[in-house]
């Protein structure tokens, strides 16, 4: 749990709340779909757990355990043989389901949402990020409080250490009060961002924001453009806070560039809401660079693209402001590029490698075209003004099929 979070506000049930401990040996229960399985493995790795075995099942909505009774038997046997510490179920579990499965298997049990929150906890470094994670945790746990009452009244010592309904109700109200306090603090941060927006507009600084699926290479491109050294990692959710710096796509054309938290599939609405003060940066942007890892299979690209668009729709972002940036093009065969760009044909797109610099010169020109449209035509001569920290290349060095400006 968050270090700044009081124990009594998070200690609902050892089966639904977890403190991330590096090196825990776990059993992962997920769906047989390859994309879903790989993403679940990435989440477990990001939390620094060690996978002893992966079990798959088509449905994880069994009323009693989440998994079917046969799978529950299998999990208990594996846990005994492998001497594991925890079972992670790649789906949302109710307090009752987690409690039943933990009691049956004699293992700590957490679900997908709790796992994501544990990762958020380990990544949060700023005060605002910690508040956002804490709010998400409360929103995760509060609906489970009522169910904890039911289990507690059965005499099973679950929920709040088996306390009575009246005591749990008091705790429930205390948690609601704590959540309201955090929301007020985050609202203050939101107002500060709005003041920043007003100041930026007064100074006439255009605003470009990097968005996209987690691990799509947003921070690598950010570092390249602004000469920063922010942490880059293949792990999920390396970035939880927004960082903004100024840079010049070409000499004399200054814009602000921000790096934001990554998206992920099946991200609950309450988590999006908790991070709203950060994600709202996207709504202020004049241009959003939607980063995509183009080296992944086409079916994976479609799922991730759909997830990103869903989050952006939740934030009411106008698609007109979005430019799809197909990253990691250095890992893609030239002949595969037309198939990839076809997935994103509904929006303007271009191809780059934020690692090697391929296509970043063209991307700078596109940014200038989109941001300063109508001021004057950007010519090939203007392109020579691009700052020299990118690898020297001509526009023709980019694959001719590397995307369209729509």
Radius of gyration over all CA atoms, rounded: 23 Å
Tell me the name of the CATH homologous superfamily of the largest domain. Answer: P-loop containing nucleotide triphosphate hydrolases
Strand content: 5-15%
Shape: globular
CATH architecture of the largest domain: 3-Layer(aba) Sandwich
Largest sheet: 7 strands, mixed
Order of helices and strands: EHEHEHEHHHEHEEHHHEHEHEHHE
Number of structurally distinct domains: 2
Q: What is the spatial order of strands in the main beta sheet?
A: 6-7-5-8-9-10-11
Helix % is: 40-55%
- Which residue ranges are poorly predicted, with pLDDT under 50 across at least 5 consecutive positions? 1-21, 157-162, 385-406
Q: Could you say which structural class the secondary elements and strand pairing correspond to? A: alpha/beta
Query: What's the total helix number?
Result: 14
Q: Tell me, what is the CATH class of the largest domain?
A: Alpha Beta
Instruction: Report the mean per-residue pLDDT as an integer.
Output: 79
CATH topology of the largest domain: Rossmann fold
Distance between the termini: 45 Å
Tags for this model:
406 residues, alpha/beta, Rossmann fold, 2 domains, seven-stranded mixed beta sheet, four-stranded parallel beta sheet, 14 helices, disordered N terminus, disordered C terminus
